[in-house]
Amino acid sequence: MSQTLTPKGRATRARIIEGAAEVLREQGVAAARLDDIRDRTATSKSQLFHYFPGGKDDLLLAVAQYEADRVLEDQQPHLGRLDSWESWKQWRDVVVERYEQQGDHCPLGALFLQVGRSTPGARAIVTALMRQWQEALADGVRAMQDQGMTSSRLDADRTAAALLAGVQGGVTIMMSTGDSSHLRAALDTGIELLRFHAVGEVSAP
Amino acid sequence: MSQTLTPKGRATRARIIEGAAEVLREQGVAAARLDDIRDRTATSKSQLFHYFPGGKDDLLLAVAQYEADRVLEDQQPHLGRLDSWESWKQWRDVVVERYEQQGDHCPLGALFLQVGRSTPGARAIVTALMRQWQEALADGVRAMQDQGMTSSRLDADRTAAALLAGVQGGVTIMMSTGDSSHLRAALDTGIELLRFHAVGEVSAP
DNA sequence: CAAAAAATGGACCGGCAAGTCCAAAGCTGG
DNA sequence: CCAGCTTTGGACTTGCCGGTCCATTTTTTG
Q1: CATH tag, A7-53
Q2: Which of B197, B97, B87 is nearest to B151 (CA)?
Q3: Are domains B7-53 and B66-200 of this chain identical in fold?
Q4: Selection from A162, A168, A196 nearest residue A183 by Cα
Q5: Which residues does chain A have within 8 Å of residue B164's beta carbon, measured at their own beta carbons?
Q6: Which residues in chain B touch residue A190, judged by CB atoms under 8 angstroms apart?
Q7: Strand D-contacting residues in B 43-102, CB cut-off 7 angstroms
Q8: Residue A5 contacts strand D, CB under 7 A
Q9: Interacting residues of A102 by C-beta distance below 8 A, sequence separation 6+
């Protein structure tokens, strides 16, 4: 890729990433060939390597970043305003719907596997995503605590971590089995935990 | 593979699966070549295709089954006797230890991705594993309920599903980020949920 | 408008790894 | 001990696909 991208160049680059993301979702990383992406995006081989000098891995990493950004975006605005039971429920519904609709392809997981955990870039993308996601959930827990709607004894960060793990696992299981009940169970149980702490105020053992 | 396997043949087949599992754990599915497995298991190309006529995918599927069996085995005997707070804690420790030790390779997940979700065989393996795992957890919850140590109002299956999702997600996140705190949070929060229900007996909303 | 830089097209290359094949060796049962 | 199997060895083929290269067109800039 050249130092300075003209608007046309930027458009092409974006088109490649978006088209590649589609292809990868449809065919999976293992099955997707550079030629498929070339066809889909109406580009040539040289363009692919022009905009992603590192080759396929380079492109894959860019797509991973693109997909990672969408994960949180797709949960907005609910994820940013978890300050009432109603908003928690709306967020829950959006998450369930998003992943049920996505079907059985986990773009990020697949990309991650292909590019390799060891690659610093790949790990950084996922780590950042998880950190932001957990932070948003923790903010939500704290917002509820501030309003006295759940116990202030609850460790907001740990609760958020557990909830995030549940969502992740629920999605993973759904990808594998086609059954979203685990995702729903994890979300509902996690949210109910907050509610119980609102009423019970039982001290942790 | 022939209809009837002699003891020697069976031994070779088993050796291939075990050796392949090692190679796949070390190098990852994408990087592992048939020749690597051939070297590791001291076999020849023809043997690989003799015992796994379907080629690489066939072998990968066999390894997936092998790994799936080990997942539950490694949690025994604790997973089969979740009838006291102490046994739950022991189970928790075993899970954390097993996956922390496993490092950043998820053999099953990787295999699954390579072979493809659509493959009926692959999906069946994972589905069966999840069902058994969840069932074991649900049995544990019921055992606690029978002893009056947690509320009988709790939906054992749903609680088990949520806990399983948490474990899955915790492992996934650990694979990606190298941080096991989500796995711990999911396990601890899940078990604490049972304890709270023991004391509080608050009705669900 | 000319020169430089960027964007594009697409033919071509080369390596790699899955899969094939046949011959040879080793068991096993009658 | 031999006839028919299972098991084994390893050279060879094959197709695929990432990556290279250079010519050409388009855009920018001074």
Answers
A1: 1.10.10
A2: B197
A3: no
A4: A168
A5: 169, 173, 182
A6: 162
A7: 43-47, 50
A8: no
A9: none
Query: Nearest nucleotide by C1' from A51 CA?
Result: C7
pLDDT in tens, A101-118: 987 778 887 787 777 777
Chain A CA closest to residue B193: A193
- Can you list the residues of chain A whose pLDDT is less than 50? 201-205
Q: Does A30 touch chain B (CB under 8 A)?
A: yes
Question: What pLDDT shows up at residue B125?
Answer: 95
Residue A202: the pLDDT is: 45
C-alpha A176/C-alpha B192 separation (Å) is 28
Please name the nucleotide lying closest to B35, CA to C1': C17
Q: What span, in angstroms and rounded, lies between the C-alpha atoms of B169 and A18?
A: 27
Q: For residues A155 and A138, is the Cβ–Cβ distance under 8 A?
A: no
Spatial distance between the Cα atoms of B57 and B151, rounded to a whole number of angstroms: 46
Low-confidence ranges of chain B (pLDDT < 50): 201-205
Residues A128 and A152: their CA atoms lie apart, in Å, by 27
Q: Is the CB of B1 under 7 A from strand D?
A: yes
Which of A123, A171, A202 shows the shortest C-beta gap to B177? A123
Domain ranges of chain A: 7-53, 68-199
Which residues in A lie closer than 8 A to residue B159 (C-beta atoms)?
Answer: 185, 189
d(CA A16, CA A134): 30
CATH class for the region spanning A68-199: mainly alpha
**Any idea what DSSP says for residue A77?**
T
Q: Which superfamily does B66-200 belong to?
A: Tetracycline Repressor, domain 2 (1.10.357.10)
